[in-house]
Amino acid sequence: MEAVDRLIHLLEQAAARGAELAVFPEMALTTFFPRWNLNDDAEIAGYYESQFPGPQTQLLCDAARKLKTGFALGYSESVEEGGRVRRFNTMALVGQDGELIGRYRKMHIPGSESPEEGTTVHLERRYFEPGNLGFPVFAYRGVRVGLALCNDRRWPETWRMLCLNGAQVVLVGYNTPVLLDEAPALAHLRMFHNHLPMQAGAYQNTVWIAASAKAGLEEGQALLGGSCIIAPSGEIASLASSVGDEVITHRADLDLIATCQRVNFDFARYRRPSEYALISERAGPLE
Amino acid sequence: MEAVDRLIHLLEQAAARGAELAVFPEMALTTFFPRWNLNDDAEIAGYYESQFPGPQTQLLCDAARKLKTGFALGYSESVEEGGRVRRFNTMALVGQDGELIGRYRKMHIPGSESPEEGTTVHLERRYFEPGNLGFPVFAYRGVRVGLALCNDRRWPETWRMLCLNGAQVVLVGYNTPVLLDEAPALAHLRMFHNHLPMQAGAYQNTVWIAASAKAGLEEGQALLGGSCIIAPSGEIASLASSVGDEVITHRADLDLIATCQRVNFDFARYRRPSEYALISERAGPLE
Prior knowledge:
The structure is a homodimer. By secondary structure, chain A is an alpha/beta fold. Chain A has a single domain (2-280), classed as Nitrilase/N-carbamoyl-D-aminoacid amidohydrolase, CATH 3.60.110. Chain A contains eight helices and twelve strands. Chain A has helices at residues 2-16, 41-45, 57-67, 124-127, 156-164, 190-205, 255-263, 267-270, and strands at 21-23, 70-81, 84-94, 100-105, 137-140, 143-149, 169-174, 208-213, 215-218, 221-224, 228-230, 236-239. A six-stranded mixed β-sheet of chain A has the order 5-6-7-8-11-12, with helices on one face. In chain A, strands 1-2-3-4 form a four-stranded mixed β-sheet. A two-stranded antiparallel ribbon of chain A has the order 9-10. In chain A, a hairpin with a 5-residue loop joins strand 11 (228-230) and strand 12. In chain A, helix 1 (2-16) runs parallel beside helix 3 (57-67) and helix 5 runs parallel beside helix 6. At the A-B interface, helix 5, helix 6, helix 7 and helix 8 of A face helix 5, helix 6, helix 7 and helix 8 of B. Chains A, B: Keywords: Hydrolase. Chains A, B: Residues 1-256 form the CN hydrolase domain.
């Protein structure tokens, strides 16, 4: 599988630079097929992994073990749960020993079930259920690591839930098209709207973020890129500078988390959870 | 009172530019006295307004009526509630008719009750209780307007609560010192940390924000300034360019709210409130 070969090559580059943990994009094993209005069940099924690691991803896990560099990988997951096949947009976290540490299933599924007039075709809600594992945080070499996928990054609740679950580092995989048919007037803001909620998420929750994007042309669709590593100060510490295969690295100072908390974010002292009930009660404003 | 004269003069400038609504800073009638370790009860009491409008602020309300330009004004409120005197860091919203529409009491009170070693003296928690009116939204000429004060802007819950309560416009008053004794390494980020959570708040909640700061020297302390008007796209649409008395204006296109919602933020469709319970249950991460 060509994709796995590319991922292994990127992991080798990361390890050679001293990286101890890597993150790959959302749906890194296949094309971003929600851009297509597919109706052939067999064709659709071909995009999902029914096991992890499977025959191909085992090669990536083997590379991680050899390189002593764990990774997070986005893929389309098919699983039998409760007597039926369920499909999730998933990210797996693999340790330095090449073993699966845990998985996250994308909580916020954007787009629609069917094409909607005047908008870019984006059928994630046809191909995936919203995740059913909450916002888990895993131990990776003593560091608490959370995962998020693409649209999740736009919602402040993603970051806050990961923060309250104790995350110090959040790994994000994403796929974002450059074009935006539904609002041409906002098209120039695509990269700003990529980085803004992540920079705020890092700052407001005092976490390090490493976000990995597909970039460049995929099946004729231009993808945004803009992969970055963001400090708990909200600053972009490292930023991709191409739309090709590219490795960026940064040595994350975890002590900066406590420094940032000291300035503004002593959560236990200042937050007022009982005043936020509506956030967990109501999806949108009343009409 | 010199402060009220300055405010009236600024309101006149705003009205002359066609402004229909103005916002003044937090604690606009007095100095930002939480920078002082005060123990004289009479001296402390002198900083609070026990009625609104009072003799001085009535002059400002009269000006609003004459100019047909309402305003939000931050002030220190002293009120007898439940048989005792309570003190809040408050913002009043006044209509074009000069009448009080409603008030907001700052929900997130930063700082401490007593000076803490190694940090800038900031005793807001001595002088004010956390607000007890939630995150109200008021009708101002058919537009739904929410209010927030200073530290509130750093918490994503402030913006989300106002969004869920239906806000289209949020008026913010703030006082932020330039210096940051507790983290010199972050000192260069003061303006970035001012704008970042507001730009994200505007974007993630599709609201217009107008934020008004004290600026320049006040009793020897340099205040940050950076007053701005932010679009629901997260873009800064207007920005103060001085640390003196300065009026900035912008004609806010409320239709942009629906455009921004269409792109990413159909709240009712995509948010997952039942998955966010922890946000309203736990103040900080478990140790």
